């Protein structure tokens, strides 16, 4: 079992587009783009978050930008230097090679 205050990698999906220039203000989250099933644009934020307090602060920033959170997932390390969720893989640390 992991400790609740340990650092983890998160994937946060928000409705609409956030310009990549916001990455530093959003705690250096990687910013990628995707589409929802109806064809509407999504922004996908992926990155390490120090602890639950930092996650709450990041979500507060997103809320202050009047963005709608579509999804939030903690990605699990698979021991090979990658993080997985739902069968998809993202090579982290670093940036995902595609919006997944």
Unreliable stretches (pLDDT < 50, length at least 5) are: 91-100
Principal-axes shape call: globular
Gross CATH architecture of one domain: 2-Layer Sandwich
- How big a fraction of the residues is strand? 35-45%
Largest sheet, in brief, is: 6 strands, antiparallel
The strand count comes to 6
Rg over CA atoms: 13 Å
Can you lay out the helices and strands and say which pair or pack?
Blueprint: E1 8-15, E2 30-35, E3 41-49, H1 52-64, E4 69-77, E5 82-85, E6 88-91
Structure, explained:
- The protein is mainly β.
- It has a domain at 10-77: Alpha-Beta Plaits (2-Layer Sandwich), CATH 3.30.70.
- The protein has one helix at residues 52-64; strands at 8-15, 30-35, 41-49, 69-77, 82-85, 88-91.
- The chain has a six-stranded antiparallel sheet, covered by helices on one side.
- Strand 4 and strand 5 form a beta hairpin.
Annotation keywords:
mainly beta, Alpha-Beta Plaits, 1 helix, 6 strands, 13% helix, globular
Produce a short descriptive summary.
This protein is mainly β and 100 residues long. It is 13% helix and 40% strand. The protein has a 6-stranded antiparallel β-sheet, with helices on one face.
């Amino acid at each position: 079992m992991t400790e609740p205050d340990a650092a983890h990698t998160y994937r946060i999906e928000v409705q609409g587009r956030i310009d990549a220039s916001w990455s530093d203000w959003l705690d250096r989250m990687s910013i990628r783009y995707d589409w929802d099933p109806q064809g509407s644009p999504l922004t996908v934020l992926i990155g390490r978050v120090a602890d639950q307090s930092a996650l709450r602060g990041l979500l507060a920033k997103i809320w202050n930008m009047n963005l709608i959170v579509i999804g939030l997932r903690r990605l699990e390390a698979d021991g090979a230097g990658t993080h997985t969720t739902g069968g998809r893989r993202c090579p982290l640390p670093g940036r995902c090679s595609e919006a997944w």
